[in-house]
Design goal:
The chain is mainly α. Among the domains are: about 50 residues, no CATH class; about 35 residues, no CATH class. The protein is built from six helices and no strands. The chain is rod-shaped.
Length: about 140
């Protein structure tokens, strides 16, 4: 079996999808062979790809429209799915809206009773302090 060109259709007529590097290599190979960008666009990629698209592809900027990407043999780009919880599109796998804040830490210095009392008064209500005293007395 002979190796085919990167953008040549198979015997069944179904064109395989390729990476942007392979399409870029094919365009540069055709350009080095003396073909114009218009010839490459019209003859190799069909009518929906313009010579401007081919020129931008030579600089590494490929089209985003699915029709043009499919004509060039690339996989179509789809919009990212929205988060079912908040409706936004996230760049991370987890939703920041579901992040639960951590409870505040209570650091009590046992070697200094004045500091311990100040920390307890700052972080606890009088009812909580009374319940803590009752629990310690039992």
């Amino acid at each position: 079996m002979t190796e085919r060109n990167a953008l040549e259709a198979s015997k069944t007529g179904v064109q395989k999808l390729y990476s942007e590097e392979k399409v870029l290599g094919y365009i540069l190979l055709q350009k080095a062979a003396g073909r114009s960008l218009r010839q490459i666009a019209n003859n190799d990629f069909g009518g929906c790809v313009t010579y401007g698209d081919v020129q931008r592809a030579m600089h590494g900027v490929f089209p985003k429209r699915p029709q043009k990407r499919l004509a060039m043999g690339l996989t179509p780009m789809r919009p990212a799915p929205a988060c079912p919880n908040c409706g936004d599109v996230h760049t991370k796998k987890t939703c920041p809206a579901q992040h639960k804040p951590c409870p505040p830490r209570l650091a009590i210095r046992l070697d200094d009773p004045h500091s311990a009392a100040r920390s307890i008064r700052r972080h606890m209500t009088t009812d909580q302090i009374a319940a803590l005293v009752r629990a310690l007395e039992e």
